[in-house]
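Hi P.,

Sorry for the delay on this. The queue was packed all week, but I finally got your sequence through. Input first:
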Amino acid sequence: MQADTSYGQEPQQTRSARTNQDGAGPSGAVKRLLCAEPLEPSPSRPLPKTLSLGLFVSWHTLGAKSRHNCLTLRRIPCVEDLQGLARDLMTRAFSPGTMPAHLSATSSRLYYHYTPEQECLSLPSDVVRTHLKLIVTYDGWEYVVYERKLRTDPTHQEDDETPLLVTVVEFESTALVIGHLGIRVLLVSYPTVSIRKDFLDDIDYRLRADPENFKGILS
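Then the structure:
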């Protein structure tokens, strides 16, 4: 499993200043949201330009070092459609009846659900802070549209208005025996990334309606 990992480099914001609060689109424009398109469009019609999403994860250590990982996101209909390691981790992390509300069977009315193409990453042992950025790529341009710190308190309940909710599971690898030594690696996975529909639909509409004037977050 590989991740597009770089050190000490932030994503370049080529058209960014701060989030545009206007941009309702040209008058008379038909609001057709690509985020709401079927997961498997009909082959009888050409594919329109669509948004590609990524999760930019920054780890910060006690030694003032940082490591950055860009995870490509793939949309899934619901959490029950997870496969492989992501499904196994979610099953182990949440016993029946304890699934957070935004991951429940009815949550698809409010959230789009995604899972990273990269199943897991090797986590440094001295990470003290994790920062998340939601990256949107459209027509070759990349925008930061939301950012937040990752909270580590499992008892903390996120605000329902938070547009980006990420599940984090840390675990150890199977021991690799070298000689007489067994070596374990600390791994981290982000099996589900949930984004509020109203937030992403608004980004989708404003970006496609007027891409020249769309503003991301300068970060």
